[in-house]
């Protein structure tokens, strides 16, 4: 059910629970929840967000999951969290100190749960949060303990730089690195 304007307004500053477990192959980290996601309680829930299609088209899942099926990701060795927990209408509303503090909390989660890969979706947020101004897409030279880091394009429908096919191709590069033995669905 689509949230009303009132429900969206009430979702400002809400947080979403992580979809996380120890030892995941990939922990995907959004920048922060949008108001639509916060209002529905589901990650990447806004219609037009291309996370779920990219996940499927890249071979991470055998079918396209819906946001209300997010818990099924755990069965595929995948999880979702965010750099910053606070819901906003646009990621640009987050301050640099807020992103840096969020990266510290995300780093603590990664140390606790130890996924093989942390995949941050949004290079600009990654650059700011982790103080890596020259970071590019793909594997990063830094690690968090044994966890390797991969930066993906932001799947928001507002990111016009990446077509759905190009976004799925970027996700597929990570899937091949994270799960080389698995065939693309």
From TrEMBL:
The keyword Iron-sulfur does not apply. It comes from the Bacteria. The keyword DNA repair applies. Keywords: DNA damage, DNA repair, Hydrolase. CDD domains: UDG-F2_TDG_MUG (cd10028). GO terms for biological process: base-excision repair, AP site formation. GO terms for molecular function: pyrimidine-specific mismatch base pair DNA N-glycosylase activity; uracil DNA N-glycosylase activity. Residues 18-163 form the Uracil-DNA glycosylase-like domain. NCBIfam families: PRK10201.1. This is Mismatch-specific DNA-glycosylase.
């Amino acid at each position: 059910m689509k949230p009303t304007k009132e429900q969206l307004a009430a979702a400002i500053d809400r947080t979403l629970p992580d979809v996380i477990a120890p030892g995941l192959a990939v922990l995907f980290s959004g920048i922060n929840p949008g108001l639509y996601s916060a209002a529905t309680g589901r990650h990447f829930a806004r219609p037009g967000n291309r996370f779920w299609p990219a996940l499927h088209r890249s071979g991470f899942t055998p079918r396209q999951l819906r946001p209300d099926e997010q818990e099924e990701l755990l069965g595929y060795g995948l999880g979702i969290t965010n750099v910053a927990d606070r819901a906003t209408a646009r990621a640009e509303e987050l301050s640099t100190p807020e992103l840096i503090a969020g990266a510290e909390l995300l780093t603590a989660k990664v140390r606790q749960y130890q996924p093989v890969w942390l995949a941050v979706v949004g290079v600009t947020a990654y650059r700011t949060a982790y103080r890596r101004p020259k970071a590019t897409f793909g594997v990063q030279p830094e690690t968090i303990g044994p966890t390797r880091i991969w930066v993906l394009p932001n799947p928001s429908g507002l990111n016009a730089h990446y077509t759905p096919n190009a976004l799925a191709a970027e996700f597929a590069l990570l899937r091949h690195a994270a799960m080389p033995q698995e065939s693309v669905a």
